[in-house]
Structure to design on (181 residues):
């Protein structure tokens, strides 16, 4: 029903959502950032403190790292979109719980159906848990899933805390450039 009504309706539903307790402490709902016709759709984990204030996903330190990754991938701004498994900031920056991820999943799926990206990049294990529950993907190895190509890469924050992962991430990107170029 949300999908038929269009993207703006999905955004409005996100803004007024009270399906899980995360809405109680959220300042802003964090819907998405990027192109309306993305080739690549990134799924992060959850809005952080910064995103909670700005309402823009990946607008803090992890966002700077994501920008570097996108640049290394050679994507232009028409090529990509980013969102998270949940649209509200979990208090204390904790990981979102399974029930919170499940409550928010209809929004994520509606965004994907409406924007229709060819490639979905799961940024870390939480994104994998949300989008492919029960499935364990290999880092950097693409799989087909319901008509789209799914690729699991490291979350940008993991690259900040473990700089040695940047080289591995770049190798994953190099190996998969054909998917989006
Ligand atoms: N980490 C995420 O997973 N998402 C954001 O929006 C910011 C940091």
């Amino acid at each position: 029903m949300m999908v038929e009504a269009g993207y703006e309706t999905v955004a409005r539903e996100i803004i007024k959502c009270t399906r899980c307790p995360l809405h109680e402490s959220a300042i802003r709902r964090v819907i998405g950032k990027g192109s309306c016709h993305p080739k690549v759709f990134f799924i992060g984990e959850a809005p952080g403190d910064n995103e909670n204030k700005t309402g823009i996903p990946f607008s803090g330190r992890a966002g700077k790292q994501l920008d570097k990754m996108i640049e290394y991938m050679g994507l232009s701004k028409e090529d990509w979109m980013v969102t998270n498994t949940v649209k509200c900031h979990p208090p204390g920056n904790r990981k979102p719980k399974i029930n919170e991820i499940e409550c928010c999943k209809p929004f994520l799926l509606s965004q994907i159906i409406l924007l229709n990206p060819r490639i979905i990049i799961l940024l870390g294990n939480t994104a994998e848990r949300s989008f492919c529950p029960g499935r364990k993907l290999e880092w950097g190895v693409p799989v087909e899933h319901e008509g789209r190509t799914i690729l699991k890469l490291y979350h940008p924050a993991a690259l900040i805390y473990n700089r040695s992962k940047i080289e591995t991430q770049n190798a994953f990107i190099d190996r998969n450039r054909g998917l989006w170029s």
Remarks:
- Residues 44-48, 51, 57-58, 62, 84, 157 surround uracil (CB under 6 Å).
- The chain has a mean pLDDT of 96.
